[in-house]
TrEMBL record:
<dbReference type="InterPro" id="IPR019546">
    <property type="entry name" value="TAT_signal_bac_arc"/>
</dbReference>
<protein>
    <submittedName>
        <fullName>Carbohydrate ABC transporter, N-acetylglucosamine/diacetylchitobiose-binding protein</fullName>
    </submittedName>
</protein>
<keyword id="KW-0732">Signal</keyword>
<comment type="similarity">
    <text>Belongs to the bacterial solute-binding protein 1 family.</text>
</comment>
<dbReference type="InterPro" id="IPR050490">
    <property type="entry name" value="Bact_solute-bd_prot1"/>
</dbReference>
<feature type="region of interest" description="Disordered">
    <location>
        <begin position="31"/>
        <end position="54"/>
    </location>
</feature>
<keyword id="KW-0813">Transport</keyword>
<dbReference type="InterPro" id="IPR022386">
    <property type="entry name" value="Chitin_NgcE"/>
</dbReference>
<dbReference type="GO" id="GO:0030313">
    <property type="term" value="C:cell envelope"/>
</dbReference>
<feature type="compositionally biased region" description="Basic and acidic residues">
    <location>
        <begin position="42"/>
        <end position="54"/>
    </location>
</feature>
<dbReference type="Pfam" id="PF13416">
    <property type="entry name" value="SBP_bac_8"/>
</dbReference>
<dbReference type="InterPro" id="IPR006059">
    <property type="entry name" value="SBP"/>
</dbReference>
<dbReference type="InterPro" id="IPR006311">
    <property type="entry name" value="TAT_signal"/>
</dbReference>
Amino acid sequence: MGFTSVNRRDVMKRSAAVGLLAVPGAAALSSCATGGDDDGDKAEKGDKTKKNPLGVKEDADLQVYIFNGGYDDKYAQFVTDMYGDRFGDATTDQKATEKIATQVQPRLVKGDPPDVVNNSGADNMNAGKVIKNKQAADLTELLDAPSWDDPNVKVRDTLIPGVEEMGAFGADGCYQLNIASTIYGNWYSDKMLTETLESDYPKTWDEMLAVCKKAKAKGIHGWTYPGGHPRYMLFSMFAMFAQAGGREVIEAMDYLEPGAWKHDAVKSVFEAFEELVAKKYVLTGFDGKEAHIEMQTAWTKGKALFVPDGSWVENEAKDTTPKDFRMAVGATPSLDKGDKLPFGTLYSPPGEPFLVPAKADNVRGGMEWLRMMYSRKAARNLFKQVSVMPVVKGAIDGMSLPPGVASSQKAVKAAGKNIVIAFWKEWYREMFDEDFNNVMGKFMLGDMSVKEAMDTMEKATARVAKDPDVEKVKRS
Protein backbone atom coordinates (compact mmCIF):
# COMPACT_ATOMS: atom_id res chain seq x y z
CA MET A 1 0.00 0.00 0.00
CA GLY A 2 3.03 2.23 -0.11
CA PHE A 3 4.56 3.92 -3.11
CA THR A 4 8.28 4.32 -3.53
CA SER A 5 11.44 3.89 -1.54
CA VAL A 6 11.56 5.55 1.87
CA ASN A 7 14.24 7.81 3.31
CA ARG A 8 13.73 7.05 6.97
CA ARG A 9 16.73 9.08 8.12
CA ASP A 10 15.30 12.35 6.77
CA VAL A 11 11.96 11.57 8.39
CA MET A 12 13.46 10.79 11.75
CA LYS A 13 15.65 13.87 11.85
CA ARG A 14 12.55 16.01 11.72
CA SER A 15 10.42 13.77 13.94
CA ALA A 16 12.97 13.56 16.73
CA ALA A 17 13.37 17.31 16.82
CA VAL A 18 9.89 18.31 17.97
CA GLY A 19 6.87 17.37 20.02
CA LEU A 20 5.78 14.87 22.61
CA LEU A 21 5.91 11.64 20.64
CA ALA A 22 9.23 10.44 19.24
CA VAL A 23 9.51 7.65 16.75
CA PRO A 24 13.30 7.15 16.51
CA GLY A 25 14.40 4.14 14.53
CA ALA A 26 10.85 3.31 13.50
CA ALA A 27 10.25 2.38 9.90
CA ALA A 28 8.73 5.72 9.03
CA LEU A 29 7.38 7.05 5.80
CA SER A 30 9.02 9.52 3.47
CA SER A 31 8.75 13.23 4.13
CA CYS A 32 5.59 15.17 3.39
CA ALA A 33 7.67 18.30 2.81
CA THR A 34 7.41 18.27 -0.96
CA GLY A 35 4.62 18.33 -3.47
CA GLY A 36 2.97 20.39 -6.16
CA ASP A 37 0.11 22.85 -6.32
CA ASP A 38 -2.09 20.86 -8.70
CA ASP A 39 -5.12 20.42 -6.46
CA GLY A 40 -7.77 19.85 -9.14
CA ASP A 41 -10.35 22.21 -7.60
CA LYS A 42 -13.61 22.41 -9.48
CA ALA A 43 -14.46 25.53 -7.51
CA GLU A 44 -12.72 28.72 -8.53
CA LYS A 45 -9.81 29.73 -6.36
CA GLY A 46 -10.28 32.69 -4.08
CA ASP A 47 -7.76 35.39 -3.29
CA LYS A 48 -5.00 34.42 -0.88
CA THR A 49 -4.88 36.79 2.08
CA LYS A 50 -3.62 36.64 5.67
CA LYS A 51 -7.15 35.68 6.70
CA ASN A 52 -7.50 33.21 3.83
CA PRO A 53 -3.98 31.79 3.24
CA LEU A 54 -5.17 28.82 1.17
CA GLY A 55 -7.22 30.94 -1.19
CA VAL A 56 -10.63 29.37 -0.50
CA LYS A 57 -13.47 30.64 -2.70
CA GLU A 58 -15.67 32.49 -0.22
CA ASP A 59 -18.98 31.09 -1.48
CA ALA A 60 -17.83 27.57 -2.42
CA ASP A 61 -19.96 24.93 -0.70
CA LEU A 62 -18.34 22.26 1.49
CA GLN A 63 -19.34 18.64 2.13
CA VAL A 64 -17.76 16.59 4.92
CA TYR A 65 -18.06 12.83 5.54
CA ILE A 66 -17.32 11.66 9.09
CA PHE A 67 -17.01 8.11 10.39
CA ASN A 68 -19.73 7.69 13.00
CA GLY A 69 -17.86 5.39 15.38
CA GLY A 70 -16.29 5.72 18.80
CA TYR A 71 -15.87 9.47 18.41
CA ASP A 72 -19.31 10.07 16.76
CA ASP A 73 -19.36 13.30 14.73
CA LYS A 74 -20.02 16.15 17.14
CA TYR A 75 -16.32 17.09 17.32
CA ALA A 76 -16.31 17.42 13.53
CA GLN A 77 -19.53 19.44 13.47
CA PHE A 78 -17.73 21.94 15.69
CA VAL A 79 -15.20 22.48 12.89
CA THR A 80 -17.85 22.48 10.18
CA ASP A 81 -19.62 25.21 12.13
CA MET A 82 -16.32 27.13 12.32
CA TYR A 83 -16.11 26.89 8.55
CA GLY A 84 -19.67 28.09 8.15
CA ASP A 85 -18.99 31.07 10.41
CA ARG A 86 -15.87 31.97 8.46
CA PHE A 87 -17.38 31.50 4.99
CA GLY A 88 -20.90 32.76 5.52
CA ASP A 89 -21.89 32.59 1.85
CA ALA A 90 -20.99 28.90 1.61
CA THR A 91 -23.37 26.03 2.34
CA THR A 92 -21.92 23.34 4.60
CA ASP A 93 -23.12 19.75 4.72
CA GLN A 94 -21.79 17.15 7.16
CA LYS A 95 -22.78 13.51 6.90
CA ALA A 96 -22.05 10.80 9.48
CA THR A 97 -21.80 7.16 8.45
CA GLU A 98 -20.24 3.87 9.48
CA LYS A 99 -19.80 2.97 5.79
CA ILE A 100 -17.08 5.28 4.53
CA ALA A 101 -15.84 3.05 1.70
CA THR A 102 -19.33 1.97 0.69
CA GLN A 103 -20.56 5.52 0.37
CA VAL A 104 -17.44 7.44 -0.65
CA GLN A 105 -15.51 5.04 -2.90
CA PRO A 106 -18.11 5.07 -5.72
CA ARG A 107 -18.06 8.86 -5.66
CA LEU A 108 -14.27 8.86 -5.97
CA VAL A 109 -14.58 6.68 -9.06
CA LYS A 110 -17.26 8.94 -10.55
CA GLY A 111 -15.13 12.02 -9.88
CA ASP A 112 -17.74 13.63 -7.62
CA PRO A 113 -16.46 13.02 -4.07
CA PRO A 114 -17.07 15.04 -0.90
CA ASP A 115 -14.50 17.66 0.09
CA VAL A 116 -13.28 16.10 3.35
CA VAL A 117 -13.35 12.42 4.33
CA ASN A 118 -12.71 10.91 7.75
CA ASN A 119 -11.29 7.66 6.35
CA SER A 120 -11.81 5.52 9.43
CA GLY A 121 -13.71 2.49 10.73
CA ALA A 122 -13.98 -1.10 9.62
CA ASP A 123 -15.37 0.01 6.26
CA ASN A 124 -12.62 2.50 5.52
CA MET A 125 -11.04 2.96 2.11
CA ASN A 126 -7.66 1.43 1.31
CA ALA A 127 -5.65 4.63 1.62
CA GLY A 128 -2.65 3.25 -0.25
CA LYS A 129 -4.77 2.42 -3.27
CA VAL A 130 -6.58 5.75 -3.11
CA ILE A 131 -3.22 7.52 -3.18
CA LYS A 132 -1.83 5.28 -5.92
CA ASN A 133 -4.89 6.04 -8.05
CA LYS A 134 -4.28 9.78 -7.54
CA GLN A 135 -7.64 10.15 -5.83
CA ALA A 136 -6.28 11.99 -2.77
CA ALA A 137 -5.06 15.58 -2.86
CA ASP A 138 -1.53 16.41 -1.76
CA LEU A 139 -1.85 18.25 1.55
CA THR A 140 1.63 19.79 1.50
CA GLU A 141 0.22 23.27 0.89
CA LEU A 142 -1.91 22.89 4.02
CA LEU A 143 1.12 21.81 6.07
CA ASP A 144 3.09 24.80 4.78
CA ALA A 145 0.24 27.23 5.47
CA PRO A 146 0.16 29.50 8.54
CA SER A 147 -1.49 27.78 11.48
CA TRP A 148 -4.90 28.96 12.61
CA ASP A 149 -3.62 30.30 15.92
CA ASP A 150 -0.28 31.81 14.95
CA PRO A 151 0.46 33.06 11.41
CA ASN A 152 4.17 32.86 12.18
CA VAL A 153 3.99 29.08 12.76
CA LYS A 154 3.27 26.62 9.96
CA VAL A 155 0.58 24.00 10.45
CA ARG A 156 3.17 21.20 10.27
CA ASP A 157 5.10 22.72 13.19
CA THR A 158 2.05 22.54 15.46
CA LEU A 159 1.73 18.75 15.08
CA ILE A 160 3.37 15.98 17.06
CA PRO A 161 5.90 13.77 15.21
CA GLY A 162 4.46 10.94 13.20
CA VAL A 163 1.39 12.75 11.84
CA GLU A 164 3.08 13.97 8.70
CA GLU A 165 5.04 10.75 8.18
CA MET A 166 1.98 8.53 8.53
CA GLY A 167 0.31 10.38 5.69
CA ALA A 168 3.00 10.02 3.03
CA PHE A 169 2.61 6.31 2.22
CA GLY A 170 6.06 6.33 0.67
CA ALA A 171 5.21 8.99 -1.92
CA ASP A 172 6.36 12.55 -2.43
CA GLY A 173 3.78 14.68 -0.71
CA CYS A 174 1.34 14.04 2.12
CA TYR A 175 -2.11 12.62 1.46
CA GLN A 176 -3.72 11.65 4.75
CA LEU A 177 -3.53 13.35 8.13
CA ASN A 178 -4.53 12.12 11.58
CA ILE A 179 -6.08 14.14 14.36
CA ALA A 180 -5.76 11.96 17.48
CA SER A 181 -2.87 10.48 19.41
CA THR A 182 -3.82 6.83 19.80
CA ILE A 183 -2.49 4.92 22.79
CA TYR A 184 -2.63 1.14 22.43
CA GLY A 185 -1.94 -1.26 25.25
CA ASN A 186 -3.52 -3.20 28.09
CA TRP A 187 -6.53 -1.22 29.32
CA TYR A 188 -7.87 -1.96 32.78
CA SER A 189 -9.78 -0.68 35.79
CA ASP A 190 -7.38 0.70 38.35
CA LYS A 191 -10.02 0.15 41.01
CA MET A 192 -10.35 -3.54 40.16
CA LEU A 193 -6.61 -4.05 40.00
CA THR A 194 -5.58 -2.17 43.13
CA GLU A 195 -8.64 -2.59 45.37
CA THR A 196 -10.45 -5.77 44.32
CA LEU A 197 -7.28 -7.72 43.54
CA GLU A 198 -4.92 -5.71 45.77
CA SER A 199 -2.24 -5.83 43.09
CA ASP A 200 0.11 -3.50 41.29
CA TYR A 201 0.25 -3.28 37.50
CA PRO A 202 2.35 -6.24 36.27
CA LYS A 203 5.68 -5.18 34.80
CA THR A 204 6.79 -8.71 33.89
CA TRP A 205 4.91 -11.58 32.29
CA ASP A 206 5.31 -13.71 35.41
CA GLU A 207 3.60 -10.93 37.36
CA MET A 208 0.87 -10.83 34.70
CA LEU A 209 0.21 -14.54 35.13
CA ALA A 210 0.11 -14.11 38.90
CA VAL A 211 -2.45 -11.31 38.67
CA CYS A 212 -4.58 -13.38 36.28
CA LYS A 213 -4.46 -16.32 38.68
CA LYS A 214 -5.61 -14.10 41.53
CA ALA A 215 -8.42 -12.72 39.35
CA LYS A 216 -9.55 -16.22 38.39
CA ALA A 217 -9.82 -17.14 42.07
CA LYS A 218 -12.31 -14.28 42.44
CA GLY A 219 -14.33 -15.31 39.39
CA ILE A 220 -12.80 -12.69 37.11
CA HIS A 221 -11.13 -13.45 33.79
CA GLY A 222 -7.68 -11.94 33.45
CA TRP A 223 -8.26 -11.01 29.81
CA THR A 224 -10.87 -10.70 27.12
CA TYR A 225 -10.96 -9.52 23.51
CA PRO A 226 -13.59 -9.08 20.77
CA GLY A 227 -14.04 -12.48 19.16
CA GLY A 228 -15.50 -10.79 16.09
CA HIS A 229 -12.38 -8.64 15.73
CA PRO A 230 -9.52 -10.75 17.14
CA ARG A 231 -6.99 -8.52 15.36
CA TYR A 232 -7.36 -6.28 18.43
CA MET A 233 -4.78 -8.55 20.03
CA LEU A 234 -2.07 -6.71 18.08
CA PHE A 235 -2.77 -3.68 20.26
CA SER A 236 -1.22 -5.56 23.18
CA MET A 237 1.22 -7.83 21.34
CA PHE A 238 2.98 -5.38 19.05
CA ALA A 239 4.99 -3.49 21.66
CA MET A 240 5.99 -6.86 23.12
CA PHE A 241 7.43 -7.88 19.74
CA ALA A 242 9.56 -4.73 19.87
CA GLN A 243 10.49 -5.15 23.52
CA ALA A 244 11.58 -8.73 23.12
CA GLY A 245 13.47 -8.39 19.85
CA GLY A 246 14.25 -4.73 19.34
CA ARG A 247 13.27 -2.40 16.54
CA GLU A 248 14.87 -4.64 13.92
CA VAL A 249 12.08 -7.18 14.44
CA ILE A 250 9.23 -4.76 13.81
CA GLU A 251 11.09 -3.10 10.93
CA ALA A 252 11.46 -6.55 9.34
CA MET A 253 7.67 -6.88 9.56
CA ASP A 254 7.23 -3.45 7.98
CA TYR A 255 9.49 -4.30 5.05
CA LEU A 256 8.09 -7.79 4.46
CA GLU A 257 11.44 -9.41 5.12
CA PRO A 258 11.67 -13.22 5.04
CA GLY A 259 11.79 -14.64 8.55
CA ALA A 260 10.22 -11.57 10.19
CA TRP A 261 7.41 -13.61 11.74
CA LYS A 262 9.70 -16.52 12.69
CA HIS A 263 11.97 -14.51 14.92
CA ASP A 264 12.53 -15.90 18.42
CA ALA A 265 11.08 -12.69 19.88
CA VAL A 266 7.84 -13.21 17.98
CA LYS A 267 7.72 -16.81 19.15
CA SER A 268 8.19 -15.78 22.78
CA VAL A 269 5.28 -13.31 22.59
CA PHE A 270 2.95 -15.86 21.01
CA GLU A 271 3.98 -18.39 23.67
CA ALA A 272 3.17 -15.88 26.42
CA PHE A 273 -0.38 -15.39 25.16
CA GLU A 274 -0.71 -19.12 24.50
CA GLU A 275 -0.21 -19.61 28.24
CA LEU A 276 -3.07 -17.21 28.99
CA VAL A 277 -5.31 -19.30 26.74
CA ALA A 278 -4.11 -22.64 28.13
CA LYS A 279 -4.77 -21.55 31.71
CA LYS A 280 -8.26 -20.37 30.74
CA TYR A 281 -7.58 -16.82 31.82
CA VAL A 282 -9.28 -15.44 28.69
CA LEU A 283 -12.99 -14.72 28.39
CA THR A 284 -13.99 -15.61 24.83
CA GLY A 285 -17.07 -14.87 22.75
CA PHE A 286 -18.35 -11.48 21.59
CA ASP A 287 -18.71 -12.58 17.98
CA GLY A 288 -21.54 -10.26 16.94
CA LYS A 289 -21.52 -7.28 14.62
CA GLU A 290 -20.69 -5.03 17.57
CA ALA A 291 -18.10 -7.39 19.03
CA HIS A 292 -15.86 -4.63 20.38
CA ILE A 293 -18.80 -2.97 22.14
CA GLU A 294 -19.90 -6.30 23.63
CA MET A 295 -16.36 -6.93 24.88
CA GLN A 296 -15.99 -3.47 26.35
CA THR A 297 -19.34 -3.74 28.12
CA ALA A 298 -18.36 -7.05 29.72
CA TRP A 299 -15.10 -5.44 30.77
CA THR A 300 -16.65 -2.33 32.32
CA LYS A 301 -19.08 -4.61 34.17
CA GLY A 302 -16.13 -6.32 35.84
CA LYS A 303 -16.06 -9.66 34.01
CA ALA A 304 -12.43 -9.24 32.91
CA LEU A 305 -9.39 -7.31 34.04
CA PHE A 306 -7.42 -6.50 30.87
CA VAL A 307 -8.48 -5.74 27.29
CA PRO A 308 -6.34 -4.96 24.22
CA ASP A 309 -7.68 -1.62 23.06
CA GLY A 310 -6.96 1.91 21.94
CA SER A 311 -7.48 5.23 23.66
CA TRP A 312 -10.84 5.73 21.96
CA VAL A 313 -12.24 3.21 24.43
CA GLU A 314 -12.81 5.79 27.18
CA ASN A 315 -15.34 7.61 25.04
CA GLU A 316 -16.74 4.53 23.30
CA ALA A 317 -17.44 2.75 26.60
CA LYS A 318 -18.51 5.79 28.60
CA ASP A 319 -22.19 4.77 28.81
CA THR A 320 -21.35 1.53 30.65
CA THR A 321 -18.31 2.67 32.63
CA PRO A 322 -18.90 3.09 36.39
CA LYS A 323 -17.88 6.46 37.79
CA ASP A 324 -15.30 4.84 40.05
CA PHE A 325 -13.87 2.54 37.36
CA ARG A 326 -10.68 4.63 37.01
CA MET A 327 -9.87 3.56 33.47
CA ALA A 328 -6.16 3.20 32.80
CA VAL A 329 -3.72 1.87 30.23
CA GLY A 330 -0.59 -0.11 30.95
CA ALA A 331 2.41 -0.81 28.75
CA THR A 332 3.03 -4.41 27.81
CA PRO A 333 4.98 -6.38 30.45
CA SER A 334 8.55 -7.47 29.82
CA LEU A 335 9.08 -11.15 29.06
CA ASP A 336 12.52 -11.52 30.62
CA LYS A 337 15.79 -9.74 31.32
CA GLY A 338 16.91 -10.36 27.76
CA ASP A 339 14.38 -7.93 26.28
CA LYS A 340 15.97 -5.43 23.89
CA LEU A 341 13.67 -2.54 24.86
CA PRO A 342 12.55 -1.69 28.41
CA PHE A 343 9.23 -2.03 30.12
CA GLY A 344 7.20 1.03 29.20
CA THR A 345 7.71 0.67 25.45
CA LEU A 346 4.46 1.87 23.93
CA TYR A 347 2.57 1.33 20.68
CA SER A 348 1.32 4.84 20.01
CA PRO A 349 0.69 6.00 16.43
CA PRO A 350 -1.30 9.05 15.35
CA GLY A 351 -4.84 7.95 14.53
CA GLU A 352 -8.22 8.93 13.07
CA PRO A 353 -7.21 9.79 9.48
CA PHE A 354 -8.59 12.44 7.14
CA LEU A 355 -8.06 13.03 3.45
CA VAL A 356 -9.22 15.53 0.85
CA PRO A 357 -10.23 13.89 -2.45
CA ALA A 358 -8.24 15.21 -5.42
CA LYS A 359 -11.35 15.68 -7.55
CA ALA A 360 -13.47 17.30 -4.84
CA ASP A 361 -15.47 20.36 -5.80
CA ASN A 362 -13.74 22.40 -3.10
CA VAL A 363 -10.26 21.03 -2.44
CA ARG A 364 -9.03 24.26 -0.88
CA GLY A 365 -12.07 24.35 1.37
CA GLY A 366 -11.29 20.81 2.45
CA MET A 367 -7.74 21.82 3.37
CA GLU A 368 -9.06 24.88 5.20
CA TRP A 369 -11.40 22.63 7.19
CA LEU A 370 -8.37 20.63 8.30
CA ARG A 371 -6.46 23.82 9.13
CA MET A 372 -9.34 24.69 11.44
CA MET A 373 -9.30 21.15 12.86
CA TYR A 374 -5.70 21.77 13.89
CA SER A 375 -6.57 24.97 15.75
CA ARG A 376 -6.22 24.91 19.52
CA LYS A 377 -9.92 25.51 20.10
CA ALA A 378 -10.93 22.64 17.79
CA ALA A 379 -8.30 20.38 19.34
CA ARG A 380 -9.50 21.22 22.84
CA ASN A 381 -13.08 20.60 21.75
CA LEU A 382 -12.03 17.22 20.34
CA PHE A 383 -10.64 16.38 23.75
CA LYS A 384 -13.77 17.62 25.56
CA GLN A 385 -16.07 15.66 23.25
CA VAL A 386 -14.31 12.31 23.09
CA SER A 387 -11.59 12.26 25.76
CA VAL A 388 -8.77 11.75 23.27
CA MET A 389 -5.34 13.33 23.12
CA PRO A 390 -5.23 15.63 20.06
CA VAL A 391 -2.12 15.78 17.86
CA VAL A 392 -1.86 19.56 18.25
CA LYS A 393 1.08 20.11 20.57
CA GLY A 394 0.18 21.54 23.96
CA ALA A 395 -3.51 21.87 23.10
CA ILE A 396 -4.79 20.33 26.33
CA ASP A 397 -2.16 21.71 28.70
CA GLY A 398 -3.83 22.91 31.87
CA MET A 399 -7.10 21.11 31.25
CA SER A 400 -8.71 18.67 33.69
CA LEU A 401 -8.16 15.18 32.31
CA PRO A 402 -10.41 12.11 32.67
CA PRO A 403 -8.69 8.99 34.02
CA GLY A 404 -8.00 7.32 30.65
CA VAL A 405 -6.42 10.40 29.09
CA ALA A 406 -4.38 11.14 32.21
CA SER A 407 -3.14 7.55 32.19
CA SER A 408 -2.35 7.80 28.46
CA GLN A 409 -0.28 10.94 28.94
CA LYS A 410 1.58 9.29 31.79
CA ALA A 411 2.29 6.23 29.63
CA VAL A 412 3.59 8.37 26.75
CA LYS A 413 5.89 10.33 29.02
CA ALA A 414 7.17 7.12 30.62
CA ALA A 415 7.87 5.63 27.20
CA GLY A 416 9.98 8.59 26.14
CA LYS A 417 11.86 7.54 23.01
CA ASN A 418 10.49 4.01 23.21
CA ILE A 419 7.45 4.64 21.01
CA VAL A 420 6.78 2.08 18.27
CA ILE A 421 4.42 2.10 15.28
CA ALA A 422 3.19 -0.86 13.22
CA PHE A 423 3.62 0.65 9.78
CA TRP A 424 2.92 -2.69 8.06
CA LYS A 425 -0.59 -2.47 9.50
CA GLU A 426 -1.08 0.78 7.55
CA TRP A 427 0.89 -0.05 4.39
CA TYR A 428 -0.50 -3.55 3.85
CA ARG A 429 -3.89 -3.27 5.47
CA GLU A 430 -5.23 -6.62 4.28
CA MET A 431 -2.48 -8.40 6.23
CA PHE A 432 -3.94 -6.92 9.40
CA ASP A 433 -7.64 -7.02 8.56
CA GLU A 434 -7.61 -10.51 7.07
CA ASP A 435 -4.46 -12.55 7.71
CA PHE A 436 -3.64 -11.46 11.25
CA ASN A 437 -7.33 -11.33 12.12
CA ASN A 438 -7.85 -14.93 10.98
CA VAL A 439 -4.73 -16.13 12.79
CA MET A 440 -5.71 -14.55 16.10
CA GLY A 441 -9.29 -15.78 15.72
CA LYS A 442 -8.02 -19.35 15.85
CA PHE A 443 -5.05 -18.79 18.13
CA MET A 444 -6.99 -17.17 20.97
CA LEU A 445 -9.41 -20.11 21.00
CA GLY A 446 -6.56 -22.60 21.22
CA ASP A 447 -7.27 -23.87 17.70
CA MET A 448 -3.90 -22.80 16.27
CA SER A 449 -0.45 -23.47 17.67
CA VAL A 450 2.35 -20.95 18.02
CA LYS A 451 4.18 -22.53 15.10
CA GLU A 452 1.08 -22.51 12.91
CA ALA A 453 0.41 -18.86 13.75
CA MET A 454 3.96 -17.83 12.89
CA ASP A 455 4.01 -19.94 9.71
CA THR A 456 0.71 -18.47 8.54
CA MET A 457 1.87 -14.88 9.03
CA GLU A 458 5.17 -15.72 7.35
CA LYS A 459 3.30 -17.07 4.31
CA ALA A 460 1.07 -14.00 4.26
CA THR A 461 4.15 -11.78 4.26
CA ALA A 462 5.68 -13.71 1.39
CA ARG A 463 2.43 -13.54 -0.57
CA VAL A 464 2.18 -9.78 -0.24
CA ALA A 465 5.89 -9.33 -0.98
CA LYS A 466 5.53 -11.26 -4.26
CA ASP A 467 2.23 -9.70 -5.33
CA PRO A 468 3.00 -7.40 -8.29
CA ASP A 469 -0.26 -5.52 -7.75
CA VAL A 470 0.75 -4.38 -4.27
CA GLU A 471 3.04 -1.36 -4.21
CA LYS A 472 5.84 -1.83 -1.72
CA VAL A 473 7.48 0.61 0.66
CA LYS A 474 11.21 -0.14 0.57
CA ARG A 475 14.18 0.62 2.74
CA SER A 476 16.31 3.57 1.64
